[in-house]
Amino acid sequence: MKRHPIFFHTMRLPRFRRLLLPLILLLVFTTTSYSIVGRHATVPPLPAFVMIDPGHGGYDPGVMAGGIEEKNITLAIAHQLNASLQARGIQTAMTRESDIDYANDGSKGSSSKRSDLDKRIEMTQEQQATMFISLHINNSPLATRGGAEVFYSKQNEGTKELAALVQAELHQVPEMSKRDSKPGTYYLLRKQDIPSLIIECGYLNISEEKARLNTADYQKQLAEAIATGVERWLQTQQ
Ligand SMILES: [Zn+2]
């Protein structure tokens, strides 16, 4: 059998040198494999744990119009958003899953509202969420057109871009009046140290929008748009 010249040459080397070539090859192979695995390992799954906050609840109905209460619509959209984010592999939790509030017993007015909001912030921190999304509905006699509007916590880096992406996806929802995302000074936004959004999903004083907001179909479209915006932003963070 004709031997390959390099192989033949190697076989004539002393024992240590004969072992050297396989050792080098093994080292090169191991290093290459490690760097390939290492590169993959540096791309984590979507690094997010989103705390979804359906605004209001329990004693606090939020805004109301024609028998429709904000707390019920925010809860319905929140359930849809929860499902949509989970379907995209994003971990989630909700501050409430039913019609409850977290106001301290016996407190009234602004102090009960404050204790309710503090509890939602505390839950977000306790669960070590990496993003906070609070859902609301607007009602303003001064508003002459509807539309969803995204407010962001300007103290958290990257949140402006997150808000812009979510707002852009909301613009894709049929019949959506196109509003701009903007920084917000709401208590819930100021107190969070993670990217946080308050999304006003529409206006109850605009009758066509009020009718849409009360349908499961429109609630799902809003949730899908928000989830898509969140997913797009997370992809920019990898
Ligand atoms: Zn609200």
Topology readout:
Elements lengths: L4 H7 L3 H27 L7 E6 L9 E2 L2 E2 H18 L3 E4 L14 H18 L4 E8 L10 E4 L6 H13 L10 E2 L3 H4 L5 E8 L3 H7 L2 H21 L2
Parallel strand pairs: 1-4, 1-5, 5-8, 6-7
Antiparallel strand pairs: 2-3, 6-8
If strands are numbered along the chain, what order do they take across the biggest sheet? 4-1-5-8-6-7
**Structural class, from helix and strand content?**
alpha/beta
Tell me what portion of residues adopts beta-strand conformation: 15-25%
Q: Please state the average pLDDT score.
A: 86
Keywords: Hydrolase
Domain MurNAc-LAA: 121-231
GO biological process, one term: peptidoglycan catabolic process
Organism: Tumebacillus permanentifrigoris
How would you sum up this structure, described in words?
The chain is of the alpha/beta class and 238 residues long. It folds into two domains: 5-41; 49-236, Aminopeptidase (3-Layer(aba) Sandwich), CATH 3.40.630.40. Helices cover 48% and strands 15% of the residues. It is built from eight helices and eight strands, in the order ααβββαβαββαβαβαα. It has helices spanning 5-11, 15-41, 70-87, 109-126, 159-171, 187-190, 207-213, 216-236, and strands at residues 49-54, 64-65, 68-69, 91-94, 131-138, 149-152, 182-183, 196-203. Strands 4-1-5-8-6-7 form a six-stranded mixed sheet. Helix 5 (159-171) links the parallel strand 6 and strand 7 (182-183). The longest helix has 27 residues, at 15-41. The radius of gyration is 27 Å and the shape is globular. Zinc ion binds next to loops. InterPro entries: MurNAc-LAA_cat (IPR002508), N-acetylmuramoyl_amidase_3 (IPR050695). GO terms for molecular function: N-acetylmuramoyl-L-alanine amidase activity. Pfam families: Amidase_3 (PF01520).
